[in-house]
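Hey team,

Filing this mostly as a record. A colleague (T.K.) asked me to run one chain through the structure pipeline before their review meeting, and I want the input and output archived in the tracker in case anyone asks later how it was produced. No errors, nothing strange. Just documentation.

Input sequence:
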Amino acid sequence: MNTTHYSSWPVGLPHFITAPQTSVYVNLEISARRYPDKQAVIFYDTVLSYAQLNAAVESMAGFLQQACGVKRGDRVLLNMQNSPQFIIAYYAILRADAMVVPLNPMLVTEELRHYIDDSGATVAITSQEIFGRLSPLVGEHGVRHAIVATYSDYLLAPTDLAVPDFIRAARAVPAMEGVTPWQEAIDKGLRPRPHEAGPDDLACMPYTSGTTGHPKGCIHTHRSVMFTAVASPSWSIASVPDQVTLAVLPFFHVTGMQVSMNATIFGGGAVAILPRWDRDVAGQLITRYGVSTWTSIPTVMIDFLSNPRLGEYNISGLRRVSGGGAAMPAAIAQKLLDLTGLQYMEGYGLSETMAATHTNPAQKLKKQCLGIPVFNVDSRIVDPQTLKELPPNEVGEIVSNGPQVFKGYWNDPVKTKEAFIEIDGKPFFRTGDLGYMDSEGFFFFTDRLKRMINASGFKVWPAEVEATMYQHPAIQECCVIASRDPYRGETVKAVVVRKPGIEVTAEEIMSWAHEKMSAYKAPRLVEFVDTLPKSATGKVMWRTLQENELSKK
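Output structure:
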């Protein structure tokens, strides 16, 4: 067991915790019994209590079992944006003893076909603005039942907040065989059978894109989902019912799902939902509802803190601002500290680990650092080729053992076997991420194993270069990729979004970069763009930029 980090452990916390030996649904059931009249969900000034939330879950679970034939262990697709319906559907699937298959709402028909084929799901819960992509697969291709939600059904109170048109849209669910409007399913009032799922039953299967081939389903039981739902709030802020969490990250992604939704419901807190990022609405929600915790990603924080209207909002109630997915640029972290007195708490996790395996301790936050292994987690750095453990400060592959690690890839025993190695008699998951551990046991991300740039034999890690580039006063966003070079093989290219109103040339940026870093790391090409391509979770899609660059003649 690697214990180097124990010297920096959060004061007063044990090294190991015991998670509840129940299904994740039971967390909602208990919170509803404890706090029936307390706010559970905030949706553009509409507030649902825990009693209302659980009642809707019970009704939807009854419909899934009684009308759709869902049985214990069945997979049910959940394909919609952040909304009260997402939370209700998620917990209803668990209440029905089935497995949630959360999907990106940006998926198109042919992509959805793969998830249906791979998971074997015959029931889908979706929303009307994206149903057109799923509808060709209902009846014809595996999905026998589709429940279609209308977000405006839960706009029950007047609001002066800027509500997107797709949220305000009136109910318009097409009449099709096998298709049931959400409210109709709820109104039937069907009762579910007694809840049977336990800690080792199937609970959730997020898909991970990987680098090649089709996305792979990550098998998680209630035990692994429960662990990070409990560990996350226990790390730095007491899990109390009066916390309000701003849910910006999409629930279909494990960080938003676990930290913003499941952890909050475990503690009886309130989830303030933002289906689509809007920096002004975020500021209004933080001010209006006393948001205390917010987990985000650097691109969102960059936009939020650059808002010229930021001074209009009271963000003093924030007690923890955290995130991951990419390193927070030092300049942005400093601006957050200057404005709020809060340090950005960075963490690290994957779909295979149902969110965080590493987080910075509150009393010793290191910038651009993954943190230390959290409760019950053993992490090491190994040589990617020899798989031998490496000493501190040497770059290798991050591997982890812990209760939140998945059981394997769905229907893919070969990939599952390749994903694990054994150290000291324990299975360790190979993350595919490169990094190093410092002398105090803190882990630092270097780059993806497959993202390295080889410039004349020198290894260049784009994330390291990007962190330096963000120090330039004219750079709003930056993504570093490889470009073909007849002499060096590959050379470093920076794709840059300039800050509004600031003029700078590519030559000026390259000259500046050569003063800030080694010559082989400094970009030799700079391309200016208006925006960087981003995924639904807000991460910069470096693969898209890389593939476009390599396709050039």
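Quick notes for T.K.: The chain has two domains: 25-340, 451-550. The radius of gyration is 23 Å.
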